[in-house]
Amino acid sequence: METKQFKAESKRLLDLMINSIYTHREIFLRELISNASDAIDKIYYKALTDDSLSSRKEDYYVRVVFDKENRTLKISDTGIGMTKEELDDNLGVIAKSGSLEFKKENEVKEGHDIIGQFGVGFYSAFLVADVVTVISKALGSDEAYKWESKGVDGYTIEPCEKDSVGTEIILKIKSNTEDEDYDQYLDEHKLQSIIKKYSDFIRYPIKMNVTKSKLKEGSEKEYEEYKEEETVNSMVPIWRKNKSELKDEDYDNFYTEKHYGFDKPIKHIHISADGMISYKAILYIPEKIPYDYYTKEYEKGLELYSNGVMIMNKCSDLLPDYFGFVKGVVDSEDLSLNISREILQHDRQLKLIAKNIKNKIKNELQNILKNERDKYEEFYKSFGRQLKYGLYSDFGSNKDFLQDLLMFYSSKEKKMVTLDEYVSRMPEEQKYIYYAAGESIERIEKLPQTEIVLDKGYEILYFTEDVDEFAIKMMMKYKEKEFKSVSSGDLGIDSEENDKESSSDNKENKELFEEMKNILSDKVKDVRMSKRLKNHPVCLSNDGELTIEMEKILKSMPNNQNIKADKVLEINTNHDVFKALKEAYENDKDKLKLYTNLLYNQALLVEGLTIVDPVEFTNDICKIMK
Ligand code: ADP
Ligand code: MG
Questions:
Q1: Which domains, and CATH codes, for the chain?
Q2: Please, which pLDDT band fits residue 108 given cuts at 50, 70 and 90?
Q3: Atom 23 of ligand 1 has which residue's CA nearest to it?
Q4: What is the pTM of this model?
């Protein structure tokens, strides 16, 4: 009998397959079962149009038989089978057929990486077997053939006996080595769990003999074990079912079954897309934040299936980071069964699905916001920060997409509001969207800087999370309205008269302010008359883009670079304290120094900043009490 040689690429791949160190050897079973399922698909569709085949209907199944003693594992199917020529063509050349196009552009690189570079299909049998035997009888043929190979040396094909149409793949499982436990592929429970894990939703039954126990005959306590053939897979995945067949409870159960979370999701999205790309998906928006969500351990991603066969546990390419909290599964017929992450990343179909999913999630969130506000606020408490990070990252490229999902606490409504709600009720003359940043709502409410804006009747958004101001700086504008911190230099509120008055006021007090600035030296950039204070004597504001809140946040970061906001000490010239300042300036320079330092430190305290020398501050207070 003639031994045929594999084609060059196949030989190379086989060699690597046999000798590489690879941790996911168990996927061989997934590949072989999926081939069996494909073969049954082919005869199944033929039977739809060919009456002579219709009697076969009940006969569609895959069978897995293991034999520990002889170290064989057999996967048989009642599929369409292969002719002699097909055995030669399909198994002699790697990845000949459509779903497994050999990626020529991806040069075969040696090493363990190899399997990551393209789908391995049938050849993965060599991950666990020394000898692979394929016995097949094609539909419409009277003869059966046996294909056999020990790996790189080539393969043989010879006639053999087989009663029914279909294919049997017999693996001679390798002996254990120091590093590899091959025995597990002959173990009932392991095999069962591999099938469950990767092939649960194959739509034909996967049958296997499993051990059961029953009471011994005539005994009331003694059990005996026996074997019975069982269907191991559950066959119909929930995402393939019709929405109308399913209750909320079913979706919730699936969420728990899959260990997506311990909470009850606030929403599920069941997608059945047909069009440019067809796929089915069930997505969940969780209610509670997973405990490890903001740690490095958390891995985002959706489970990915190709036509009922699991490809990947967590396909991260399907979700943008800002929707990293979403859980669920995606199943598409348009994806090639392929275990390579690198290829997946470049897969055009996958990109289309990801884009589609991204939009669906956003739409759903917007719906919840619109129709179930309480639920949305609950969700936003958990994941709002993530959305804001999303807005900030990637140089703000997602700002248009995400901006309408944001919410902030409103000074006016005393609850969370959207930017759209804010802008739609802005008085006509109001130029900016005002915000105030601080540790907590209570703290912000007491900020002197908010006085004039609130007095004008304008709404202020309270920023209490560290990411808030950074996100908004990235946005710059919402619906043509610029954001403005209540602490920024120019609030855009003063009328022209007010401006003139204040500039003359500034001139009049110029020398006093100059003197104060000298006293404070590099602690402040300037001392000015305030246009925003009413009841408070002083406050700090900032010149330039970097606000005092941002400085605080940057300072708290691990690799802080001591970046400082340009601080301005603002003095309320209508306040009694100002009179005291003026008097001190004219009569007592020591007093002026004392007052200036006191006021500066006060402003720091109100702002939530630390006083550099608290002892000096308390001493100063004592001095004025004496
Ligand atoms: P793919 O499944 O992506 O086509 P494989 O390497 O897994 O690639 O299989 C190669 C080809 O061998 C298949 O396309 C199919 O034509 C044939 N084949 C493999 N297993 C079977 C089987 N159990 N029954 C019929 N044909 C099979
Ligand atoms: Mg295959």
A1: 2-231 (3.30.565.10), 238-377 (3.30.230.80), 406-491 (3.40.50.11260), 494-626 (1.20.120.790)
A2: very low
A3: 36
A4: 0.70
